[in-house]
Structures are given as structure tokens and as C-alpha cells.
Amino acid sequence: MSGNAFGHLFRFTTFGESHGPAIGCVVDGVPSLIPLTEADIQVWLDKRKPGQNRFTTQRQEADEVRILSGVFQGLTTGTPIGLLIENTDQRSKDYGEIKDSFRPGHADWVYQQKYGIRDYRGGGRSSARETALRVAAGAVARKVLHALAPQLSIRGAMVQMGPHRIDRAAWDWSKTEANPFWCPDATAAAAWEGYLDGIRKAGSSIGGVVEVVASGVPVGLGAPVYDKLDADLAKAMMSINAVKGVEIGAGFEAAILTGEDNADEMRMGNDGQVKFLSNRAGGILGGISTGQDVVVRLAVKPTSSILTPKKSIDIHGNEVDVSTKGRHDPCVAIRAVPVAEAMMAITLADHLLRFRAQSGGF
Amino acid sequence: MSGNAFGHLFRFTTFGESHGPAIGCVVDGVPSLIPLTEADIQVWLDKRKPGQNRFTTQRQEADEVRILSGVFQGLTTGTPIGLLIENTDQRSKDYGEIKDSFRPGHADWVYQQKYGIRDYRGGGRSSARETALRVAAGAVARKVLHALAPQLSIRGAMVQMGPHRIDRAAWDWSKTEANPFWCPDATAAAAWEGYLDGIRKAGSSIGGVVEVVASGVPVGLGAPVYDKLDADLAKAMMSINAVKGVEIGAGFEAAILTGEDNADEMRMGNDGQVKFLSNRAGGILGGISTGQDVVVRLAVKPTSSILTPKKSIDIHGNEVDVSTKGRHDPCVAIRAVPVAEAMMAITLADHLLRFRAQSGGF
Amino acid sequence: MSGNAFGHLFRFTTFGESHGPAIGCVVDGVPSLIPLTEADIQVWLDKRKPGQNRFTTQRQEADEVRILSGVFQGLTTGTPIGLLIENTDQRSKDYGEIKDSFRPGHADWVYQQKYGIRDYRGGGRSSARETALRVAAGAVARKVLHALAPQLSIRGAMVQMGPHRIDRAAWDWSKTEANPFWCPDATAAAAWEGYLDGIRKAGSSIGGVVEVVASGVPVGLGAPVYDKLDADLAKAMMSINAVKGVEIGAGFEAAILTGEDNADEMRMGNDGQVKFLSNRAGGILGGISTGQDVVVRLAVKPTSSILTPKKSIDIHGNEVDVSTKGRHDPCVAIRAVPVAEAMMAITLADHLLRFRAQSGGF
Amino acid sequence: MSGNAFGHLFRFTTFGESHGPAIGCVVDGVPSLIPLTEADIQVWLDKRKPGQNRFTTQRQEADEVRILSGVFQGLTTGTPIGLLIENTDQRSKDYGEIKDSFRPGHADWVYQQKYGIRDYRGGGRSSARETALRVAAGAVARKVLHALAPQLSIRGAMVQMGPHRIDRAAWDWSKTEANPFWCPDATAAAAWEGYLDGIRKAGSSIGGVVEVVASGVPVGLGAPVYDKLDADLAKAMMSINAVKGVEIGAGFEAAILTGEDNADEMRMGNDGQVKFLSNRAGGILGGISTGQDVVVRLAVKPTSSILTPKKSIDIHGNEVDVSTKGRHDPCVAIRAVPVAEAMMAITLADHLLRFRAQSGGF
After folding, report:
1. Which of B209, B277, B287 sits opposite A255 (nearest CB)?
2. Rounded to an integer, what distance in angstroms lies between the CA atom of residue D302 and that of residue D19?
């Protein structure tokens, strides 16, 4: 009820602040007999890890995950999986100056208002550090998906940096690992590099748009009214730090379409399977997966940690100007890509387990 | 777990199909001693009711709500409130022809795949008829909000019809009740009338964008990680039929902003209260309400019930062409306005009760 | 969160007061394609219905259930099942005198304290009338169990009335339908008849013990720590009005046993199946069903609605004497039998659906 | 849904096996600004710790708890509290011989059946080791209770060892800390010592009955139908390892009482407060606390880890005889006392937070 857990049958609960001794989570609901090792999780954490190039915060976290329970002899046992990541790079001194001042655009002020106290070091609980646990839980979700729906794959990309969009005709998934932006358009990626260098050197920041695509999703995932698959995905994505908008399929473009242009027509394929002729629905109709690619886009705002001083107040009610001199991300949308992938994996794993329980026929 | 309930402390569970004997819901978690009558609910149902002008489906439902429990001598008792609405206008004959054919863009086919059975009459459970219950529960939520946060108000508007946007400078809330579109820009509303007549006469349909604004929201609502206020609003809105995108505050525009342009600066007001100089955050930071207007926008796709035949298949796997001759909405976004208002009320009521339980200090 | 729902995957939510227009519930999570008619539910309601002999309250309720949704052409559709029972026999005049006085041993006073208001007519929400909905939901649960585990059966019996216990050696299930007490021991039943007539004529009441046995329960139901099958059964049974104690298997007798006497030894049966040599565990080990009979006993207190005046207070803080002259049950344990059976069915159905989702191996 | 969490608003989720690297839990929903240190938790863990006298298992665990999050400068911050206890004394060799054999009366066999795998070392997840986390979470719950209801106290006692009951007239709370059994009757405690020595030396075990009393509970806790305070307590207590029965107040004795004898009469006290003349209800009416002592008793079975060989089977289906030579408890009821106290604290804290949210009036 305090909102530190996500999912119903595949459910994980996280804890930990940016500058405490450790962060961790409990992943519950994983069926037994699924192979799982620390390396299965570490590979995704490494993808997310900041400080790997000049375009993400230079905070250096080892982010080594330990499995504390729920796995025996390399297999899940059906019991809860405890995961722990020690915090190693906690330069608290960087944050001393925001102890009493509220950074505009951050959660500092509302935490203080809501709770009457806040761990100001590195943003505490509101820090993006928490997303490491989403990635870890997402790695476990991928193993569940692999066991139950081996054909399913989840891939994320950055499709817009500030005003600069990719050319969708140039989309090539193999490029996403070849540039620091998870950008599927090599030409755009090259242009973004110079653009973001300018932002970075100015101590400024910029927003972006991330797209996550799940292919091979079984037909029938999603509960039809309030737990629609798209509703749960919207919540999953909007819960990621800095996200301000979520679209499924055509998204906001659907608002300008007519019924004729928007409907995805159906035919029978040569393989005897139903074939959709387009995918404006983004793989979800009536809240239920259609078997087409599930396509989600999220708008990520620029981080408010910038060098330019901005008007704010302090804890005593004085008007102050605040600028952030610590390490920060010129474009946090980059780091949102593996996190959004993880949230997709978690949401699908949850609905896949729900599907096993409830849809049926005998 | 089957997704027919929403909310945690303020929680409602709905049941009923478009063409069954009745639809209804249980609203649970309402504190005691709040004044509540059937008229308090009916007024909002009447706002939503279709068939009131030529721009919504001509289905004629009385939509008379009965309170079956939870209210005694005009006051809530703290026990669950049962609400019932009889279905009166069930012209099942209109739907006979889609008994075996799947309308492209509808949930018909996925329901059949997921459940192996579907109530095809009027869309069954996937019908927008279910949204009457959201409006009814929303009316109860408004009473809870009124008791706990009397200054809070929730208003919705349609801000875009197809490609035609309102002029935001012309926004006038008093206009939303003066045209059939809940449009706050009188000039736009006039233009939309002719535009939508064309769509309607052609048996076509068009999408739209709805905006809901909650003013007077107390600071501190929202749980910081997975149950962020914006995450719960995203789920609430995306669960509404035909919604394909959700934005908070600047939304997708935030992706093109720099950190300098995006941050909402703070000053101290003359009244000793913190004052934000802008509201790109849409009233929510770090998942917690700031006290500014909470602003949500949703993209609504055009209904797929159109006269033009579209390619589809039938239940036997034959390729067929499907068109919808029954009553339908040329722009379902219109009817989404009171539903989105209701979901806003419900989400805020839920978080207000959560706030009472958990935030604090002694 | 207000406690008007039970179960997780098989989940039902009830509403309604003793003297409102109707009571009802939503049964959610029922898989599709399960045959279900109103008659399937009515048969169990008729078993529970009061007023069928002189040993239960003479309130006459038709208790006719209507299925409002979730069933199409005789089969469940996977959507929520709305059930409604009109209240027909609401002699409110009987209850006028307790409007301002609190009956000792009833919930009157605590409701007034907790909510500041109460529907005093017939006990309102705290009335045993609510248990009709448990029986209705239990009937649906039985259909789910029948579809998923056809060999499973659930039977209840009354094994003690006041100080008078049955002779367990005389246990004969066929007798439970042959006397007004669901008593499996015909000799005891005959003796109880005279005993209870005395209680009834004196305007007094007496407690009793109910036992419910589920046979054919699949191995493996129950989640190992907090949602142990026995923990969920304990909650289910203790939630029934007037229940003050719950035992599994040997129950409180286990406290006086040694480890040697308590352990249920195992051998291999001729059929290649594991065979337990005793069942002191009551069919549950470590919170998980063993395949043996699941055996639960519940202690039911005597109703406090008695003729003898008892010391109490009124709403103004005056000391008064209260006696109940309205219709009442001399031994409410009798009516608890079908309710306890229903709660067993519901709990098992819930865990059976959970088992489908989460236990496994690939 | 996998049952590793308990509570709704005060909610904790545990993980960890007896012989993994560590066990831990996340305590969520704790309001902010409550003082909390590791010492506040350690004191209760030390009470529970085995190996402190010859009557509990000689396993030696340091059971040192670390707070990993949710506390800043000695105060709770409203964010989840992560707790970790390293496993230090894991003599896996003691358990090698039960790797392939199922101990009768243990969860070994059902885990293997349910999950197809089990961590056999020390009982894995089904080990009583998990109860250390309940005690830790219970310590946090006590701090919440202390902040919200300072007058509330929770005390547990053992009231029966095997067939030997205490003399209730000799009840003296101060004695519970003066003997190894938490026995409130000094004479009984002395007798039990010799009795249990006999059991222990014989390598046998014996059951017992534990009673937990909460005094100073505010009126009005408990949700009236399915989440009755007694129902939630029944679940809480029955979820403790080895518990086979739960009673509230008069419990099973209520079955033999008449309505006249069972009703707790009410008068006005000199202080203007309502006074009950007896407490057969155990402080709960209609599922709601009355302000009297909340009294719960639980029956604890003898551990099945005994020296005497008992008939069983092994993983290959062979019939074998199993005896347990490792460290074990002659009377596990002793160690259940602090665990039951903790579950009482947790259940009350949860309902106290729920009360803040939902009961009310304006």
C-alpha cells in the first residue's frame, strides 16, 4: 500500500536509498525449476550501469547483485528470491549543499512536505538508483518468460532526443548496441552525439522518447477492464523516474485518425494463423494482447540537475537559487531504456502467470 | 486479480455486460458519515448518458442508479455501497450479424481467443457501457473528496478533435457545458460541430484528446515508487476504453525541452505559501502531488464501429468484410470526458485515504 | 481494504445489510466455460435458509438468487459474476427497541464507536444475513472445483451441541441430511432435539462445534509462509459470525501429544501412491495440502439474542437492561454448517487457481 | 500472491532459507518520524533466539539485524525498511541424511510435490528460522503502535505444556521472564522443568498452548466482514509453524456456554467510560475491538524431529524409517511465544493504520 511493490502474481518489492548501505528487493511468485544465476541478472545490470560513457552520470557503482534466497542448485525453488546490491560509491559530500535547499523539478520539496523528513543524500528513495532493482527483477522476469513463452523477446530503443527524431525507415535493431544511446538509426545516433556533447558541456540537460517492443507475446494476456495489459504497462512506465507520458501503438497519433485509418484489418495467413495487416493498436485490443508486437513509447523529461541556477526556496522558507554541480545525466532518457525494458518484462511475466491461473476452459 | 476492481483504500468492483439484465458495482472503503443520495450519483450519470445529441450513440438508456446498501438515513455507514443500474435498451437484434464475425479494432477476437466464449451482444463486457459504473463510483469519490478536501475540484474538457486543437488562450471553463463536446473554446466548438457532422454522415469516426484538471489537490498525495500518483493516473486513464496515450503536465512536449525550460521554479508567495512559477510537471513531482493543478491528457482513438466495410475474419476462419450498422459514436472522445473526470476523482480519493493512513508524524 | 472481499484469484466482494432492499456480491476470477445456472446456486442457498424448522430463526426469506452477469448461454465467460438476492422479510418493527440500546455480545456498540453511525435494523451489516452471499459464492466455487478437481468433495457436520458431543465411532455422513442439525450421529441427533427444545422454550441459546471435511484435495495447495492453506482456512472460518475458535486436524489436542504420537507416518500404497497412516495433521503440512482429508473444526458461540434481560447501556450512556424478543436462533452453530462448507470451497478454489499460476516446472 | 507477505497497510515481505547466506524482510507502510534503531529490533530477536537454555534447539545464531534502509538520523522516513540477518550457524552436514528422505510430520514431502525441488538443508523455507523475521517486523510494529497508541502493550505466555496447564489464579506476568518457558505460573514452571527434561532426554517432543494478550487496544480496530480483527489474528497465528488451532477469548469453551453465560454485560464506569463486566469475547465483537484485552490462544504441535524412528518414504518411493539426530526443540511452543507476540503486534499495527484511513466522520 506504500507503493514499493509492483505486480500481482509476479511481484517484487524494493527497498533502499541512494546513499544507504545497500538496496535490494524481493521477487516473489517465480515458479520453481527455472534456471537462474547471478550472472543472468548481472548482464542486465551492466547494461544499465551509469558511468560507462560521457553521456551518463559519472557515478561509479559496481552494482554487483547477490542472490540471497529462492535458488537452490541453480534452479528457482518457488520461494521468494532476495536480491541485494551494496552501495559502493556514495559521495555524500556532493549533496551537502542541497541538504536544506529544494532543487526545482526534483522530489525534494514534496518528500519534505509529505513525510516531514527526507534522506537528502543523492535523492534518497527518489533517486534513479532504485531502478537498478527494476532491472534486476526484470532479469528474473525474463527468465520466467523464457521458460513459459520462449519465443518472446523484449527490446528497447531511444527514438527521439530532444527535438531530434530517428528516421523510422532506418530502424535497425542491431544498431542499438553500437552507440551510447540505444539508437536504432545509426545516422541519427551520430548526429545525437554532437548534439548531446553540447548539452553536456553547457551543464544543461534534454528530454527524449523511448520505445519498447515485445515480440512473440502470446495472445490473450491482460485482464479486460481495470488491469488491461496497456493500463498496467502505462502504470509500469509512468512509475519510472522522469517519465511524463506513455503511448501504446499509434498513441496520440490515433487522436487524429479516422476509424477507417485506425482499424487494423485481419486476414488468414497461409499458416492458418490470423494475420493483422497493420498494428496501430500496438498489439493490444480491449486490454488484451493480440499476438502482434506490443509497442510502448514513453516521454522522458530532462533532468532538473543542471548548472544554471534556478529559483527555489530552502527549508526555512527563504528564497534561494539552486544549481547542481554534482555528477548528473545530460539525457536521462538513455538510462531509461533498460529500465523500460525491464518493466515490460515484469508486466508481461505477471500477466502470463495470471493467464495460467484464470483463462481457461476445461 | 481478474481486473474488475480499481483502487486500494477507495476500491470499487464492477460487473455486468452491455446486454445482461443489469450492471452494477460495489464501492468499498468509503468512510462513514458522508452525505450520499442517489441524486448525488444520478447527476453525473446524466452528464455521461449517451443519446443526448446527435454526436453520441443513439442508444437510449435510462441509467437510473439505485443505492442498495451502505447508506442509512442519508449518510454513509462505512459499509460497502452497492450500486445497480438496470439495462433497459438492449436491442440485441442490432448485433446479430457480429455474432460470428470479429470487428477489426474491437475486442471481439481477443475475447474469443482468451476465454473461448464471448457475450457478443453489444460488446458484452468490453462495451463502453461499463463506464457508467466508473461515473457512478466517481460520484461517490467526489463526495469523499468533498468531505476530506472541500477545496478540491475536478473538471474535464476536450482539447482536440481529430487534427483540430483548441486555442488554449481561449480556454474558458464555463464554455464546456455550453456545447456538446465539453470544449472550453467556443470558437473551436462551433467549428467542430460542422466537422463532426461530416464524419457522422459518412458513417465514419474520429479520435480526440481529453484533458482533466484537478485543482486544490492537497500536497503529498502519491506513494513514491510504484504507486506514484501519476502512475496510478496513467493506469486509471489507460483503462478507459479506446484510450491509447496518457500525458501528465507537459507530457511528450517535455521530451524536447531542456532542463532549464522544464523546471518549475519556486518562490514564496505573499501568503507565506510556496508558489510555483510554472506547472510543466502537471502538479506531480517524484510521484507526489505538489498542490498545483494536476493535469492529465488522454488520447482517444476513433471507434472501429464504422459503416465502411473492413477486412476481417469470422469464427470459422473465413475471411469476411465487416461494417457496423448499429448505433455508434462518431467521436467517442466526447463521452470519455466524464469518465476521465470520474477516474481522476477515484484515484485522488484513493490516495487521499492512503495519505491519512500512512503519511504522518507524531 | 475495508474487508468486504475474500480470496485472491477466486475473489468475491459482498454488499448489503439485513434490512436494505437487497444484498449481493461480485464473484471474480472464475475461469471461462464452466457450466453455471441459478439453480446451481439456489440449491445451496436453500440448504442454508432459515425458518425451515423450529430450531432456526423464523425469519422467512425467499433468498432467490439472480445471476446478473458473467454467464452466457449457461457457461461462465471469465467476466465477473454479479449475484443479487432481494430482501423480502424485513420486519423492521421487531428491531425498533434496540435502535438506541446496545445488545451485550452483539456488534451494536462497536459499530457505533467505529463509524459513529449504524444501521440498527436487524444488525445491519453485522447480520448473519450476509452469510447467504458466502453460500452463493461457495456454490460458484464448487463449480470451479468440480471443473478443475472433479474428485473433490466438501461436507460439513455439527459434532457438538453445547456440552453434548457426537460419538465419532457412529459417524455416518448419510445422516447429516436426516436431522435438523447436520449431525452425523443419529443417536446424538435425537438427544439434541430434546435438549435444544428446552433451550429454545427458555428463550435461551447454546453454542456448538462444526466440522468441515474436504476429501480429494489435490496435493500441493497452499502457499508456504503467510498464505498457508490452514492460515487462510483459519481466517475464512473465523470471519464467520459467532465463530470463536478454529482447529486443523488434531487441533488443540495436538498440544498434549508427543512427537511420536503426533507424526503421521507414510508408506507406499499398493497403487504406487504415498499413503499416510493417520491424519492428525488434518491434511495440511507446512501450510500445503497433503492429499489427505482437510479437516477443520470451528467453535460457534451462542447467540446473544436471548429473552433474559442482560445489563447494558444505551446510546446516551444510560444503564439499561436488554433482552431480545425478535426471532432468533437457539443454536446458530446449525446455520454455520453450510456457511463453513462454503468458506472451505472458496478457500480451496482460490488456492487451486493459485496453484495453476505458480507451482510448476517446465 | 505467493504468500510471503503479511498485512495491508503495515505490510512486510520476507525471504530467505535456513541455510542460505542470509534472511531478510522489507517492512513497508511505516509512517515517517518514528524513532527506530537496530537495538529496538535486536532486543526482541534476542528474546526469541534459540540456544539460550537446554529447552530450545542448540543452534547458535547471532541473529544480528541490520537496518538497510528507511531510517535516517534515527527516524523512519516513510520509505520501506529493509532488514537483513546473516545466517552464521549452518551446519549443513547435520541434514545430509534427510536429503532424500521425507521426515514424517514435516513439510519435506509436500514441498517436493508442489515445487519439484526443495532446499532440504534445515528445512529451507519451511524452517522456523523464518520466524526471526516476524519478530524483527514485530519490533517495528511495536514502535508504530507505541507512536500511535502509547498505552497499548502486548504480552505472551505459555499456558499449557503437553497435558499440564497453568493455574490461572496464579497468573503473574512478572514470572514470564523468570523461567525458560514464558510461564506466568511459577509453580507450574518448576514442574514443567522436570517434565520437559524427561521429554528432552528421551529425544521426544511435546506440544503446548500459548496465550497472547494485548491490553490498551483502541476501540474500533477491525474491518467488519472478512477482515475481522479476529479473522486476521487467526490467520496470523495459524501461519506460525506448528500451530494447529487458534482461539479468541472463551474460544472452544464458548461452544458449551449458554447465551446467558456467554454475553459480556456492559455498565458505565465511574470515569464515564463503558465498562464490560467480563471478557468472554476476548476483546472483539463483530470483528471489531471493544477496548478490552484482546486475548488469543494457539495450540502448538510437538515437533516431528524426534529420535524414535518413524515410518516414511524416500524420494525414490522406497519405504524407510526416519529419525532426526540434529539439534531440535523438545517443545517448540516455547519459541512460539515471542513469535505470536510479534504477529499480534503486526496485526494490530496494520488495523490501526487502516482505522486511520477509513473510519471517520467529519
Report:
1. B209
2. 23
**In degrees to the nearest 10, what's the CA dihedral of A128, A132, A134, A135?**
130
Nearest CB partner across the interface for B29, out of C1, C14, C118: C1
ipTM of predicted complex? 0.96
Coil, helix or strand for B126? Answer: helix
pLDDT of residue D341: 98
Q: For B212-223, how does the pLDDT look when each residue is reduced to its tens digit (9 = 90+)?
A: 999 999 999 999
C274's enclosing H/E stretch is strand C274-276
Chain segment D102-151, per-residue pLDDT in tens: 989 999 999 999 999 999 888 889 999 999 999 999 999 999 999 999 99
Tens of pLDDT, residue by residue over B314-338, are 999 999 999 877 667 899 999 999 9
Number of other residues whose CB lies within 10 A of the CB of residue D362:
13
Give me the number of domains chain A comprises: 1
**Residues in CB range of D251: below 8 A, 6 or more apart:** C244, C245, C299, D282, D297
Between the CA of residue A238 and those of A120, A242, A315, what are the distances in Å?
Answer: 23, 8, 29
CA distance D238 to chain A (A): 19
Distances from the Cα of A78 to the Cαs of C209, C291, C340, in angstroms?
Answer: 37, 20, 30
If we measure between CA atoms, which residue out of D83, B338, B348 comes closest to residue A15? D83
Q: Rounded to whole angstroms, how far apart are CA atoms C202 and B277?
A: 77
What is the C-alpha separation between C110 and D217, in angstroms, rounded?
Answer: 13
Take residue B41 and report the three cell numbers written for it.
450519483
Boundaries of domain holding D40: 5-359
pTM of this structure? 0.97
A125 labeled binding residue: yes
Q: Distance (Å) from the C-alpha of residue C215 to the closest C-alpha of chain A?
A: 21
Return the residue matching grid coordinates 439474542: C305
C-alpha–C-alpha distance, residues A313 and A307, integer Å: 17
CATH number of the domain that residue A288 is part of: 3.60.150.10
Q: Are D24 and A28 in contact (CB under 8 A)?
A: no
pLDDT means per 10 residues, chain A with 362 residues, are 92 95 96 96 89 72 92 96 89 68 91 92 89 98 96 98 98 96 97 96 96 97 96 98 98 96 94 94 97 98 92 93 82 96 98 84 43
Report CA-CA distances (Å) from A353 to A350, B88, C337, C360, C361: 5, 38, 35, 11, 13
A-D CB pairs within 8 A amount to 168
> Which element (helix H / strand E) includes B211?
strand B208-215
**Partner-chain contact C205 D234, CB within 8 Å:** no
D68 vs A16: CA distance, rounded Å: 7
Task: Report CB contact under 8 Å: A33, C362.
Answer: yes
User: Which residues make beta-bridge pairs with D313?
Assistant: D319
Cβ-based contacts of C362 with chain A (< 8 Å): 31, 33-34, 147-148
Cell of A151: 519465443
| Cβ atoms of B307 and B325 closer than 8 Å | yes
Question: Which of B102, B155, B148 is CA-nearest to residue B344?
Answer: B155
- List the beta strands (DSSP E) in A124-278: 153-161, 164-165, 208-215, 243-248, 266-268, 274-276
- Indicate the range of B8-12, C94-98, C232-236, C286-290 predicted with least confidence: C94-98
CB-CB contact of C252 with D297 (8 Å): no
Per-residue pLDDT tens over the stretch A82-122? 999 999 866 555 566 778 899 899 999 999 999 999 998 88
